């Protein structure tokens, strides 16, 4: 069985992407969400939104062989772009938040190329806003 994946680049953490996606995650039921962003920012938003998720952290290489992970539809996967950001401020765009947004899109592109190369056809892509 091939799982249907929804690949989501979370965008700029100083914007609305992380918050919107974390709030709608329970409503995504026909795809396994794969969030791509920064773990520090994810933890920050989970904390301020008082949301209790237990993401399954993976590397981008595992997505083409997801069946070995035994993922359930209620779970979501998280690919950390590992920017080593220590802290950031909501609504304050700076070099660090731009870097996270860029690396998230870059990782998304790498994953899509890998999935297409491996003929993994059941996926969709969603990108959240980035700063310009």
Share in helix? 25-40%
Q: Tally the helices.
A: 3
Largest sheet, spatial ordering of strands: 3-4-2-1-5
CATH superfamily: Isopropylmalate Dehydrogenase
User: Per CATH, what is the topology?
Assistant: Isopropylmalate Dehydrogenase
**CATH-defined architecture:** 3-Layer(aba) Sandwich
Beta-strand content: 15-25%
> How would you state the average pLDDT, rounded?
85
User: Which value, in Å, is the CA radius of gyration?
Assistant: 14 Å
Detail the poorly predicted runs.
none
Task: Give a written overview of the molecule.
- The chain has 132 residues and is an alpha/beta fold.
- The chain contains 3 helices and 5 strands, in the order E-H-E-H-E-E-H-E.
- It has helices spanning 17-24, 39-48, 95-117, and strands at residues 5-9, 32-37, 56-58, 77-80, 123-127.
- The chain has a 5-stranded parallel beta sheet with strand order 3-4-2-1-5, with helices on both faces.
- Strand 1, helix 1 (17-24) and strand 2 (32-37) form a beta-alpha-beta unit.
- It is globular and about 40 Å long.
């Amino acid at each position: 069985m091939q799982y249907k994946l929804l690949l989501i680049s979370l965008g700029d953490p100083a914007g609305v992407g992380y918050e919107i996606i974390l709030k709608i995650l329970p409503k995504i039921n026909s795809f396994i969400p794969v969030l791509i962003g920064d773990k520090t920012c994810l933890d920050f938003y989970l904390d301020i939104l008082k949301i209790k998720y237990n993401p399954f952290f993976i590397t981008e290489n595992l997505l083409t062989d997801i069946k070995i992970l035994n993922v359930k539809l209620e779970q979501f996967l998280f690919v950390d772009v590992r920017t080593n950001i220590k802290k950031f401020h909501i609504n304050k765009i700076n070099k660090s938040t731009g870097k996270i947004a860029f690396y998230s899109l870059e990782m998304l592109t790498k994953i899509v190329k890998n999935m297409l190369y491996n003929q993994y056809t059941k996926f969709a892509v969603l990108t959240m806003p980035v700063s310009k």
